[in-house]
Amino acid sequence: MNRTLRLILFLVLVVGGGLVIGFLTMPGAWYAGLAKPSFNPPNWLFAPVWTVLYILIAITGWRVWHADACGWPMRLWWGQLALNFIWSPVFFAAHQIGIALVIILLLLAAIFAFIATAWRLDRVAAWLFVPYAAWVAFASLLNASLFALN
């Protein structure tokens, strides 16, 4: 399979998966009714931010796949993707803010572990995860604040 086709498959998996999960677990009345911290961003901001991040996540996975498909960076990449994809259903569909907090903290740890292990393999891939780490760190603070307030 050529590199371009693999990139397309990574994009479909990550961006497509993220969009489907986002559509199926859109914030509704329950989320609107939660007490929110003063730094809570407007709802319209989440979709464009996550779309860009999902594109970066896909490109990163594609790059690491080509460098070492079975190594620790790729394993961590799959792990963070699984954690990423389960957070929304736990938070928005199951309304489990505390469990979602645990998941997002594990996600943040997996992202940092990925960056550390990918650094030796592909520094571009490691750098592509930095905005993701920053956003998930912010989202972790937001999740923790929502847990504390509700």
Structural overview:
With 150 residues, this protein is mainly alpha-helical. The termini are far apart. It has seven helices and no strands.
Let me know the average pLDDT. 96
CA-to-CA gap between the ends? 49 Å
- Uncertain regions: pLDDT < 50 for 5+ in a row? none
Structural class based on helices, strands and sheet pairing: mainly alpha
Continuous helix count:
7
Helix content: over 70%
Shape: globular
Order of helices and strands: HHHHHHH
Strand content: under 5%
Largest β-sheet summary: none
Number of strands: 0
Query: Which radius of gyration do the C-alpha atoms yield?
Result: 16 Å
Task: Pick out its properties.
150 residues; globular; 7 helices; single chain; mainly alpha; 0% strand
At a glance:
The chain has 150 residues and is mainly alpha-helical. The protein is built from seven helices and no strands.
